[in-house]
What does this fold into?
Amino acid sequence: MSARLKSGLWVRAILRRVAGEGRSAMVLHRGDEDAGDVVVVAIERSGTIVVLRETMSEPGWSRVPIDDQAALDTYLARQRRYDPDLWIIEVEVSSIDGPLEEFLGRRRDFF
It folds into this structure.
């Protein structure tokens, strides 16, 4: 098993990176400081939503397209029931079609 950046530190790094770009971001749900998975809810100003999920077991991000706010609420509630240690971050983006995964980076790149 390889060393991993703690979840709380990783989330704070994402928030700083987003703020450094002049974007808005906030923590919607605080998970386990050491080992929680991270979900990023990216929302365009037009209201288009995509969820990026990074798990402890899989490297990198996976994308989950979301139809509307109700579908997002359902998805996040289901994920929190499945993983109570989950961190949820909301980020305002100019376009969800851009390379969000590259912008966010990967946790394993810090070791």
Q: What stands out?
A: The mean pLDDT is 86.
